[in-house]
Amino acid sequence: xxxxxxxxxxxxxxxxxxxxxxxxxxxxxxxxxxxxxxxxxxxxxxxxxxxxxxxxxxxxxxxxxxxxxxxxxxxxxxxxxxxxxxxxxxxxxxxxxxxxxxxxxxxxxxxxxxxxxxxxxxxxxxxxxxxxxxxxxxxxxxxxxxxxxxxxxxxxxxxxxxxxxxxxxxxxxxxxxxxxxxxxxxxxxxxxxxxxxxxxxxxxxxxxxxxxxxxxxxxxxxxxxxxxxxxxxxxxxxxxxxxxxxxxxxxxxxxxxxxxxxxxxxxxxxxxxxxxxxxxxxxxxxxxxxxxxxxxxxxxxxxxxxxxxxxxxxxxxxxxxxxxxxxxxxxxxxxxxxxxxxxxxxxxxxxxxxxxxxxxxxxxxxxxxxxxxxxxxxxxxxxxxxxxxxxxxxxxxxxxxxxxxxxx
Length: 408
Description:
Mean pLDDT: 74
Structural class: alpha+beta
Strand content: 15-25%
Oligomer: single chain
């Protein structure tokens, strides 16, 4: 965690250092939420090399940025568009028309109107008679100069004669240059442009516009990024700040996985009691028995009496069918359980366990398969059974019928 914080600190140091090289002067503003001020504008700066002549700004007691024009007065700066080289300003009284009818002039300032200016004539009409005046062409109601008695209207200058003859209104002023498109701009707002100093290309390239030296007024572009969006120092900081934590995460993940694998191998080896290097031998019960092994289990032929050593064993536990005379049964010696030979054969091919008790018989204890049994190896029932209920292996039957079970 400490190393991660250190890496982040290094990255931020590189980034701050790179950002500092882009600023030739301290960036300032009149408030935290206001427009940031930089070259060619300057804000109450003692170092006049941080701003271009005529671009001085100030702050009022409301923390508003103020632009003062030599022959037009003061305006509130709404926004500065550095790349477009224009500034959006507002009349503090929110009545640009009254300022235009006074001694408004942009002379001796670096600013000019951006092609919106148009000549207008201002009319003063009686508010009571406004309903009787014929419709005026393209009028603009100047609300900030109107009251309950007088209504001030501005018309394009080409309609001045129409206004004088038909409107019945008095002319306040004619030939007034209005620097706004009044169809979509508030009464107190306008936009000014500047062409010198020309910082358009530098701003587009992401550089910092400023003076080339400490005495002249030649403008240059400084600290313009060569490649990509980040300076070289910021790139190095990003690589170091993100690369070191990433490498540590990869190493930690590898160690964690290695430890988990070793723990798994140890636990598996201790539970099985054998080396984990070799595979665990498959269980006999999982793979079943082959045909020759199954044939080692004794087979018997059921007589007419259908009697077995266990009187209740008269149904095959696998197919749930009662034993019938002349059916062949097979016995699992260890548990002495009987089944239909075809039923238990299919079972033992899948699982080498008794279907009833789930014991795994010891195949090595069976001497020989039933096919090699002699007549002396006949299986006899318990002593409580009569001779008529003897059971003989089917493989040792002679051709005579005396070896079959006799019925009662």
